[in-house]
Design goal:
With 291 residues, the chain is α/β, with parallel strands linked by helices. The chain folds into two domains: 17-81, no CATH class; 103-288, Vaccinia Virus protein VP39 (Rossmann fold), CATH 3.40.50. It contains ten helices and nine strands. The protein has helices at 23-32, 37-48, 52-57, 65-79, 84-88, 112-121, 138-146, 159-172, 229-238, 257-266; strands spanning 90-93, 96-99, 128-132, 151-156, 177-181, 193-198, 242-251, 270-276, 282-288. Strands 5-4-3-6-7-9-8 form a seven-stranded mixed sheet, with helices on both faces. The chain has a two-stranded antiparallel ribbon with strand order 1-2. Helix 2 (37-48) packs antiparallel against helix 4 and helix 6 runs parallel beside helix 7 (138-146). It is elongated and about 70 Å long. It starts with 22 loop residues before the first helix and ends with a strand. The structure holds glutamine. Glutamine binds at residues 108, 110, 199, 201-203, 213, 221.
Length: 291
């Protein structure tokens, strides 16, 4: 993308650039619309190719017409409540830059707990791990980056989501992730997994929080039975896919842990326990297949 940032002269020195908005002007326009400073800086940085520190240092530089038009559109979208990650098309997870589109849930920092726990439970030796409903591929790719010796199967029922995961796998060059289409455990090619992980949809259909998540795919967020339908379906079919002693790790809503633990115990899982996220909410529950 061409831009005027490289022109060294003062504003107005070259042609009609004096008419162009400046970096500072665009940031002011964002503030006037009630857009958080950080979001505006990240957007401008992504579109201009300038780092955030440079935005501050070169606040009085004119921004070329194409870039400023794109920033305008981006600010409109932000003001309308669209998440920044869909506008820039990227989101960082486990320090990996991931491509995201509206076909996938935007990876959340809380989900890093699932990755962290799996890394702590399993040895750094060849293992078979599944990530059910991988979306952008976040969980599977983070594990693959940390553990090149693991074979990781990542599944999704959405072909569009699998395409995004494939782009991310390619960009990050993580060949030890195998992508499979299908519904939860039915998408797995075999059994004997050391661990099965999932961040499935778990929000109840009538949850007020959904109002703020309208830009993300509903199928990745909402589940029947008060948000338990997919959690229970995965748990019910995972036992047969785990090796004896294998681990099931599920992300869930902040109030769902007690009922989920009870269901996992009733299904015959052992050492069932929940882990808290950074906000102190029970966010992940682990359960093991009996040995
Ligand atoms: N944790 C996400 C949220 O509450 C939801 C993710 C999910 O449903 N799996 O925004």
């Amino acid at each position: 993308m061409s831009n005027d940032f490289s022109s060294a002269g003062p504003p107005g020195a070259a042609g009609n650039v004096a008419d162009h908005p400046t970096v500072a002007g665009l940031l002011d326009a964002a503030r006037a619309r009630g857009i958080a400073r950080l979001d505006a800086e990240v957007l401008l940085s992504a579109l201009s190719g300038l780092g955030r520190a440079q935005l501050i240092a070169f606040g009085e530089r004119p921004v070329d017409a194409l870039t400023s038009a794109m920033v305008e559109v981006g600010l409109e979208r932000l003001a309308a409540g669209e998440p920044l990650a869909y506008i820039t098309g990227t989101k960082e997870f486990w320090s990996l830059p991931l491509v995201v589109t509206r076909d996938v849930l935007i990876p959340r920092p809380d989900t890093e707990l699932l990755v962290e726990r799996c890394l702590a439970l399993l040895p750094d030796a060849p293992q078979q791990v599944a990530d059910l409903g991988t979306g952008s591929g976040a969980i599977a790719l983070a594990l693959a980056r940390e553990r090149p010796a693991w074979r990781i199967v990542a599944t999704d029922a959405s072909p569009a989501a699998l395409e995004v995961a494939a782009v991310n796998r390619q960009r990050l060059n993580l060949g030890n992730v195998e992508l499979r289409a299908g519904h939860w455990c039915a998408a797995l090619p075999d059994s004997g997994f050391d661990a099965i992980l999932s961040n499935p949809p778990y929000i109840a259909e009538d949850d007020a929080a959904l109002a703020g998540l309208g830009h993300e795919p509903r199928g990745a967020l909402v589940a029947g039975e008060q948000g338990f339908a997919d959690l229970l379906q995965i748990a019910g079919s995972a036992r047969a896919r785990l090796r004896p002693g294998g681990a099931l790790l599920l992300e869930h809503g902040s109030t769902q842990a007690p009922r989920l633990r009870e269901a996992l115990v009733a299904m015959g899982f052992v050492r069932v326990a929940s882990l808290r996220d950074l906000a102190g909410h029970e966010r992940v529950t682990e359960a093991f297949s009996p040995t």
